[in-house]
Design brief:
Largest sheet: 4 strands, antiparallel
Shape: elongated
Number of helices: 1
Helix content: 10-25%
Strand content: 35-45%
Structural class: alpha+beta
Distance between the termini: 37 Å
Length: about 70
């Protein structure tokens, strides 16, 4: 698992979370499965979920989530 803060447009910042496994691949965010629920939650906060899962594996899931803006101190 990796975590990183990445810059966005207009001074925004994003948290990128990357998780991988050593499975057999074929994972998809289909309705009724766990990845679909995760995708829904990530989109609900303005983020994005990417699933890369080729046949034979491994699977990598990347969630990119908006971080709140930090007010500038005077």
């Amino acid at each position: 698992m990796t975590l990183e803060v990445v810059p966005g447009e207009g001074g925004t910042r994003w948290l990128r979370v990357v998780i991988g496994d050593d499975g057999h691949g074929g994972a998809q965010p289909l309705e009724g499965h766990g990845l679909a629920g995760l995708d829904e939650r990530v989109r609900g906060v303005g983020g994005r979920l990417d699933v890369w899962s080729p046949a034979g594996g491994p699977t990598t899931v990347t969630a990119t989530l908006p971080l709140p803006t930090v007010p500038a101190h005077p």
